[in-house]
């Protein structure tokens, strides 16, 4: 644990284990920073670390930047030293190859993100403007130490991206698809806002699943038993296997979630003739539902859309949840009422030559992203969407 005095009151420390901060101190900072993001809760992060999913052995070395006023944690930036670019969802593989082609080391690099979770949320946690300024200064100091090729802060709010741009970070944009609840009273109420073609398609998809005889069980976190987790993990692993990949998360991680943060969990299990066939796991805060993991043991037409999306929309409408974030990528979500939302990331490149080259690339990419978003908006599912008309 490195420690540097910033002034007579505050001290900057690089913490190599979240457990050195502790649940109570970390939770108090989240409360002070008004952050209710379930992916930044101590239980979620601790489950990643203690389960062995995100550890130095898997290429995730904790390097959290913190600012302390005595024993009080007043600012922090969740940070990892990475030896690869897996599990990030903002892709820089081409940058790594370019470094390698010029006999330069791209790894280790610094990464601020929730491992394996492309979820937008605050990355700079601070009690006030003063401690935020000190956190930015400490971050810049670490970036300029020469120990890392670069620093990447992913899926952060636009205001934090702007603050990082002023500190010398390059800005990057992406696209995700989110759904907003317009105070719908029922699923049919939502469907009536869509154009005729999309409304008809969704009803047809739901009808196919219903006629096949599927039943759906909604389970809150405190209702989940080990048997549910075992089935869900089987589905989760099959999803990765079907995509010729290896799962990032193990059973211990999910069991820890179930035990330590049940109020943030919601699972949907699809059954056919009383036998479970598919499952989707959601996380939630007061105003947002996050679609995270899905899988099935048998393929059935439209079962994915019903389990991972429509059941989630039903839940949002039923419980008044304002936003549904369906995860990374997926243009197919557009036809199902999700809207394109711009995501933000910030990147500090230490090498001046590569910094100039990457900055030029990002300028061109930003224009392409803006054009892409405009095309997506022209193909939205809604008959009338006032918020988009002003753009």
From TrEMBL:
This is N-acetyltransferase. InterPro entries: Acyl_CoA_acyltransferase, FemAB-like. SUPFAM superfamilies: Acyl-CoA N-acyltransferases (Nat). Coiled coil: none annotated.
